[in-house]
Design goal:
It comes from Slackia equolifaciens. The chain is an all-alpha fold and 338 residues long. It has helices at residues 2-9, 12-28, 30-41, 46-67, 91-99, 104-112, 115-124, 129-148, 150-153, 164-187, 205-239, 245-273, 279-283, 295-314, 319-330. The termini are far apart.
């Protein structure tokens, strides 16, 4: 027991760093997490939400335990010298022969540290045994590569031992974790996933917001790509020695119009043609059309929706609380009243 306590004592600071970083990473990942859960389950379930945030803590802990502390100063390990890779898969036998029982905790914890990954892969991600084990192997390889390359070149030398034995034990831990999840599923089956094509026409405010965030991310990415293409063309024209004030003015106008066009396409044209499903709405399994509308009423609905969402963007953040209050009172958005 004393051996284990001494071994764990060396990682207390690593765990403290992971716990301290957990709230910040959890907050930053909230929208992607919610989007994934809506897509996978079709709704938010408390157990799934808790599991995901615990998984975030686990991943942070895994990173901190294996990569922290980082080298510092002007000399020392990782800065002026490194540690050679350990590529002998049977080196652990020599460690046991040399250190006896004191070498066992390192092996055991290499297995235990990756058991949660296999459990998460099996129960939450619904991966089979082979894929869960391969996931553990891939994550372990990424960690060992980071250790053996000085965090992928951030530091000139490796500051931790890249050990092939760790790959074996880590993958074994993921396999054991999957087996535990498999046995648990017989006693406590995991919740049902969303059915293919499942879509709700009564989305709550959280699902609406997540869908809108996904849509605006798409608008931003698409606009950036078009901007980059335009700048590349403009650079080519300027490189050819062509100077044109009208061209420069057109470029400035395009910088403003492109996001607007993308916004209308994503929030107007696409859902109009896809039964109220924007790209983001489709991912989180919702339609913005809360009831069937025909003819001019449907056109007016989408025009009003574009106007409301556009005003929210133009007058953000002042307009957001107004919409939230309206939804809290009416349990719907203004355009849903049409």
């Amino acid at each position: 027991m004393e051996i284990i306590e001494r071994f764990l004592g060396g990682y207390s600071e690593n765990f403290a760093v992971a716990v301290a970083a957990w709230p910040f990473f959890s907050f930053a990942l909230t929208l992607p997490i919610l989007a994934y859960l809506y897509h996978r389950d079709g709704r938010l379930k408390l157990a799934s939400v808790v599991t995901v945030y615990l998984a975030v803590l686990y991943v942070l802990g895994l990173g901190c335990f294996t990569l922290y502390p980082l080298p510092s100063g002007e000399e020392g390990l990782g800065i002026t010298y490194g540690i050679p890779w350990q590529l002998n898969p049977f080196a652990f036998l020599g460690d046991i022969a040399k250190d006896g029982i004191h070498a066992v905790p390192q092996i055991l914890f290499n297995i235990v540290f990756f058991m949660p990954l296999g459990f998460i892969a099996g129960r939450f991600l619904r991966l089979d045994f082979a894929k869960s084990t391969l996931l553990g192997l891939a994550v372990s390889f990424a960690i060992e590569a980071a250790q053996g390359t000085g965090l992928f070149g951030v530091y000139p030398y490796s500051y931790r031992t890249a050990d092939v034995d760790d790959l074996i034990w880590n993958a074994s831990g993921a396999a054991v974790g999957w087996l535990v999840a498999s046995r648990l599923a017989r006693i406590l089956p995991p919740g049902a996933l969303a059915e293919e094509g499942e879509v709700t026409d009564r989305p709550g405010i959280v699902r609406r917001f997540v869908a809108f965030w996904l849509d605006m991310t798409l608008v931003g990415v698409a606009s950036t790509i078009v901007w980059a293409a335009g700048l590349f063309v403009a650079w080519g024209v300027m490189a050819a020695g062509v100077q044109n004030d009208a061209l420069a003015a057109a470029g400035g106008t395009a910088m403003l119009l492109i996001p607007a066009v993308m916004f209308v396409a994503v929030e107007g044209a696409i859902p109009f043609m896809r039964k109220g499903q924007t790209p983001g709405g489709s991912f989180v399994r919702m339609t913005c059309e809360t009831r069937e509308r025909m003819g001019w009423r449907r056109v007016a609905f989408f025009l009003l929706r574009l106007f409301v969402l556009g005003c929210m963007l133009l007058f953000f953040p002042l307009a957001a609380p107004v919409l939230l209050i309206f939804y809290a009172v009416k349990r719907r958005m203004p355009y849903d009243l049409l």
